[in-house]
Design goal:
By secondary structure, the chain is mainly alpha-helical. 78% of the residues lie in helices and 0% in strands. The chain is built from 22 helices and no strands. The relative contact order is 0.14. Mean pLDDT is 82; it is low at 1-13.
């Protein structure tokens, strides 16, 4: 122990001791309730000042580099579009058209929630926007039908995380920037796993409804007049996924252009056609988007500086050598990556885990020849799991704030959904075409 402390003081450290020191600094600051930007930045400063002797201006240079990629322009635009639609009628119209067709079946309301989260995810790309938009509409209906609140809350926060996989996904955009992967390919690759996950959740909802059928009442069956009315009202909102995904799939526009188009489309729908939002609402959405974007970009900049430092110290190569991944199978490498991400995302914000771990794993991904698009989908799924898993999943705290429920009430019903998400992870790892088939068709791979 004395030699270890002397090494810390002198700065003569190997990769393991440096890693332990930086992690220790982060954990202490997190337990002291500092926001995530502080532990990440302080750990980077400790590395720059004490261990490497690299000039401090390099931190600023790396932070600016981190937020310079053009692809990041899409992030605030998708956030802005999601905020506009959350305040407007888009979510309700998507929900209505699904409910009038399947709401009267066994498990119809929770299945409607799953499908609606998938559709709204393809519109907003935001898990928290999906929790608010879909959850606030569907939760009262399911409570009235006799579903337990613990099941409803777990369903909402987990189904909302399908938005991580369905384009436009902010997680996929950030992975593409960090790993220098094609974002359009990532978007298309996320569709298949997102749909499968929605089907798995829907299957569990049906089983749950059958098992508790004594206490659950079915919704009345809608007539065809009501169905046609719902279809008519939903045509324009359904244009979002068709135009965005179809435009990227066909090569008509890039993901960044799709983001700009989504903002224009949202404004036309909610301000001009539905007249739900006024000038003040748009200003409020702009301010909200600015605040969220600032937080995300500050984290991205700090993460880039941290990533540059650990690469400078050759920490990824040292750590990966101990895991014996150089000659390992693709499945084993993906399993290690998945475990690292899901554990990290249980304790730290998913975006921060992405910023810290991608530089660690990219050297082995590059040398192993694993398709980075597959890795991106696997990693983004783990971010989805972390967003809805105790102790610190961000969607858990969103649900606590929105539905005014205690922490224990929100997390009580999560375990079955967690198992389904683990199953989805295994499917991706052992059957990679689940993600890559559509990508290969779309881009002639």
């Amino acid at each position: 122990m004395l030699e270890f402390l002397q090494n810390i003081i002198s700065g003569e450290l190997d990769a393991f001791v440096i890693s332990f020191t930086l992690i220790f600094v982060m954990i202490v600051l997190l337990f002291l309730s500092f926001p995530m930007i502080v532990p990440l930045t302080v750990a980077t400063l400790v590395g720059f000042i004490h261990f490497s002797g690299v000039p401090l201006e390099n931190i600023i240079q790396q932070m600016v580099t981190g937020i310079s990629p053009n692809a990041l322009v899409a992030v605030p635009m998708f956030i802005f579009a999601a905020d506009i639609m959350t305040r407007g009628h888009t979510a309700k119209r998507l929900l209505d058209v699904i409910e009038v067709f399947i709401g009267h079946y066994r498990g119809g309301l929770p299945i409607t929630t799953c499908i609606s989260c998938t559709l709204f995810g393809s519109v907003s790309g935001s898990t928290q926007a999906t929790v608010v938009s879909v959850g606030t509409i569907m939760r009262p209906k399911m409570l009235k039908a006799g579903y337990k609140d613990s099941f409803i809350l777990a369903l909402i926060i987990n189904a909302s995380d399908i938005a991580w996989l369905i384009p436009p996904s902010i997680g996929l955009i950030l992975f593409g920037v960090l790993a220098n992967a094609n974002i359009a390919e990532l978007f298309i690759a996320g569709i298949g796993p997102g749909i499968i996950l929605a089907l798995l959740f829907s299957g569990y909802c049906y089983i749950y409804s059958v098992y508790h059928q004594e206490s659950i009442t079915l919704s009345p069956k809608a007539n065809w007049s009501q169905r046609f009315t719902a279809i008519k009202k939903s045509i324009l909102p359904l244009g979002f996924p068709v135009l965005i995904v179809g435009g990227i799939y066909s090569g008509a526009f890039t993901p960044t252009e799709a983001a700009a188009f989504s903002v224009l489309y949202a404004l036309i729908l909610e301000v001009v056609i539905y007249r739900k939002l006024g000038f003040k609402d748009v200003i409020d959405s702009s301010l909200s988007t600015g605040l969220i974007t600032a937080v995300v970009f500050i984290l991205v900049g700090a993460g880039q500086a941290f990533s540059w430092y650990i690469s400078f110290e050759m920490i990824p190569q040292e750590l990966l050598a101990t895991l014996n991944l150089e000659n390992a199978s693709d499945e084993y490498i993906l399993f290690v990556i998945a475990v690292a991400f899901v554990i990290g995302c249980m304790f730290v914000d998913s975006i921060v885990v992405l910023l810290v771990l991608i530089p660690v794993f990219m050297p082995i991904i590059d040398s192993s020849g694993i398709d980075p698009i597959l890795v991106g989908v696997v990693v983004t799924l783990q971010m989805a799991i972390g967003s809805a898993t105790p102790p610190f999943g961000c969607d858990i705290f969103t649900a606590i704030a929105v539905f005014k429920k205690s922490y224990l009430e929100v997390v009580r019903g999560i375990f079955p959904f967690f198992l389904i998400l683990m199953l989805m992870s295994a499917i991706l790892i052992f059957f990679p075409d689940t993600a890559l088939f559509l990508r290969d068709v779309a881009f002639d791979k």
